[in-house]
């Protein structure tokens, strides 16, 4: 009987519990739907005060699971290496960015090392915060998509050809895929494909921002007499056919350009980094600074809107490599215009073409510079010849001019009148040297071309000149330039009573010697060749006029 009563009591209790669950218990939470829910279960969520700094190597801690939920999976930092015959790149899943890019061929560019890492010096070592500012990061300009630059991505696919990173929004609003693949058709390039999938219930609309960083070494950012063309890093964009360079000062002012932008990136003296959109051009680029001497260039797409369940994709071809014209031209879109020749660009480009034409014929960049200088001196020979003839004629009348100055020492007006009569009598003109000023732009264009040629980076010449972009380690070229320019002064007529002129003429060789001391040895080689040819031309003209005068004197005395 007791057992029967126990069974009845248990049955009644179960009936009461079942009735409570059916009619009075609260509804259970609805099950998660769609891929966004899976992402919420696996994607990291940053707790207040626990976010890891992008690029720091720390793992972002997930939020604690709610009752009935599966604990989210922590994504650890991971690096993937891609290689080709010319480069080796390392990509990190912290922000799905480029962490290292090393050129493996040709050999002269290997010494630069990681192109992503800034170059420091003894006074300003490489700043450690560079690891938080890696290129080809992606963010969005609006509020409907939240994505930190250093957000942790999951590596969903990797192989020899490329790697696919995926970020899943913790709130289930979207997923972002970034696919980096090798570009077999270009020597220093890889492809980047970006895809946003709307996994939420509301439309999302933003502008995608592709971020590229550069670094300006403090010791090279300002002009000085010893640094006439500073090695300035700049954000650069091609906007409606114009090339816009923004240096560190412009970046601090947050310079912004809008229009049809076929490419944008960062430029430095020998190496550049760029992104070229495929299909629709970019719509904006904006520069800023996040840390001292770091430049940030945000390349923005046109605004887009993605409906629930839909997706939006972009494709970019990137360039990370030397500023060699052939390599830049191979990228298309006019990327070769990234090289900044300044106001001398119309002259620099043909001069650079000549340099590239000559070098394969001789197989040595130093010899190519010498031959290029010979060629340009030959092209300007008529102008130089006329100028040197004027100098020699002025030297011939110099004693007569000195006599006039002494005779009319206290009467400047009469002195000038007699000197003009002497010019007319001897057939010389005070403006006879003006044609030589025509070649000054050519001189500066050649100077700028040699200074900006990445082809000379760690290029050999002879003896100890194993890097034509470095100054002469033993100061041989600066000494030769100074001595040769002093020797050239002896061949020029001077106004001996003009102390300021004499001082300037004496200081000029010293000034050029100091310039050559700190400039690339390629420029020193050019200076020695150019000045040497000038001295030879002046000597031959002087010899001709001396023999002519001696013949006239002999004829007159006969």
How would you describe the overall organization of this protein?
With 558 residues, the protein is α+β, with helices and mostly antiparallel strands. The protein has 2 domains: 79-340, Distorted Sandwich (Beta-galactosidase, Chain A, domain 5); 349-557, no CATH class. 36% of the residues lie in helices and 22% in strands. It has helices at 2-23, 34-42, 248-252, 325-330, 345-362, 365-379, 381-407, 412-426, 440-452, 476-490, 499-518, 521-557, and strands spanning 79-83, 87-92, 97-103, 137-140, 154-158, 162-168, 174-182, 190-198, 204-206, 208-215, 234-239, 242-246, 256-261, 263-267, 271-277, 282-288, 294-300, 304-306, 311-322. The protein has a 9-stranded antiparallel sheet with strand order 5-6-7-8-19-15-14-11-12. Helix 5 (345-362) crosses helix 6, helix 5 packs across helix 9 (440-452) and helix 10 packs parallel to helix 12 (521-557).
Write the layout of secondary structure elements.
Elements: H1 2-23, H2 34-42, E1 79-83, E2 87-92, E3 97-103, E4 137-140, E5 154-158, E6 162-168, E7 174-182, E8 190-198, E9 204-206, E10 208-215, E11 234-239, E12 242-246, H3 248-252, E13 256-261, E14 263-267, E15 271-277, E16 282-288, E17 294-300, E18 304-306, E19 311-322, H4 325-330, H5 345-362, H6 365-379, H7 381-407, H8 412-426, H9 440-452, H10 476-490, H11 499-518, H12 521-557
Antiparallel strand pairs: 1-2, 2-3, 4-10, 5-6, 6-7, 7-8, 8-19, 9-18, 10-17, 11-12, 11-14, 13-16, 14-15, 15-19, 16-17
Helix pairs in contact: 5-6, 5-9, 6-12, 7-8, 7-12, 10-11, 10-12
């Amino acid at each position: 009987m007791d057992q029967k009563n126990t069974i009845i009591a248990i049955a009644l209790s179960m009936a009461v519990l079942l009735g409570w669950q059916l009619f009075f218990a609260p509804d259970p939470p609805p099950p998660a739907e769609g891929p966004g829910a899976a992402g919420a279960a696996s994607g990291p969520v940053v707790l207040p005060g626990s976010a890891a700094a992008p690029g720091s190597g720390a793992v972002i801690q997930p939020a604690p699971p709610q009752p009935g939920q599966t604990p989210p999976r922590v994504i650890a930092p991971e690096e993937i290496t891609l290689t080709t015959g010319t480069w080796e790149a390392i990509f990190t899943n912290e922000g799905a960015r480029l962490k290292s890019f090393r050129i493996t061929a040709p050999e002269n560019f290997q010494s630069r090392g990681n192109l992503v890492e800034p170059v420091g010096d003894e006074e300003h070592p490489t700043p450690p915060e560079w690891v938080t500012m890696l290129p080809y990061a992606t963010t969005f300009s609006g509020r409907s998509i939240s994505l930190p630059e250093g957000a942790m991505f999951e590596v969903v696919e990797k192989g020899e050809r490329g790697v696919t990173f995926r970020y899943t929004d913790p709130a289930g609003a979207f997923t972002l895929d970034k696919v980096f693949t090798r570009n077999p058709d270009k020597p220093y390039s890889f492809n980047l494909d970006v895809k946003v999938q709307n996994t939420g219930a509301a439309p999302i609309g933003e502008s995608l921002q592709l971020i590229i960083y550069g670094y300006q070494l403090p010791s090279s950012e300002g002009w000085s007499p010893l640094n006439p063309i500073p090695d300035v890093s700049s954000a650069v964009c091609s906007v409606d056919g114009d090339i816009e360079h923004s240096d560190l000062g412009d970046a601090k002012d947050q310079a912004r350009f809008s229009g049809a932008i076929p490419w944008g990136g960062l430029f430095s003296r020998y190496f550049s980094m760029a992104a070229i959109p495929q299909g629709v051009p970019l719509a904006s680029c904006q520069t800023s600074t996040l840390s001292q001497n770091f430049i940030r260039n945000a390349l923005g797409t046109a605004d887009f809107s993605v409906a629930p369940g839909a997706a939006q994709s972009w494709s970019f071809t990137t360039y990370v490599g030397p500023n060699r014209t052939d390599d830049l031209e191979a990228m298309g879109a006019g990327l070769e215009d990234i090289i900044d020749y300044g106001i001398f660009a119309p002259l620099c480009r043909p001069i650079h073409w000549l340099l590239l034409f000559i070098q394969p014929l001789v197989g040595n960049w130093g010899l190519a510079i010498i031959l290029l200088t010979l060629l340009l001196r030959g092209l300007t020979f008529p102008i130089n010849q006329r100028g040197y003839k004027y100098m020699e004629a002025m030297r011939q009348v110099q004693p007569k001019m000195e006599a006039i100055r002494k005779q009319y020492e206290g009467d400047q007006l009469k002195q000038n009148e007699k000197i003009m009569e002497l010019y007319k009598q001897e057939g010389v003109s005070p403006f006879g040297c003006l044609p030589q000023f025509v070649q000054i732009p050519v001189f500066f264009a050649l100077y700028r071309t040699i200074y900006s040629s990445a082809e000379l980076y760690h290029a050999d010449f002879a003896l100890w000149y194993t890097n034509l972009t470095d100054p002469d380690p033993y100061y041989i070229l600066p000494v030769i330039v100074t001595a040769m320019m002093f020797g050239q002064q002896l061949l020029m007529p001077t106004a001996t009573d003009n102390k300021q002129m004499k001082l300037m003429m004496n200081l000029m060789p010293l000034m050029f010697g100091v310039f050559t001391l700190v400039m690339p040895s390629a420029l020193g080689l050019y200076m020695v060749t150019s000045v040497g040819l000038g001295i030879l031309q002046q000597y031959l003209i002087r010899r001709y006029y001396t023999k002519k005068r001696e013949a006239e004197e002999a004829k007159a005395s006969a």
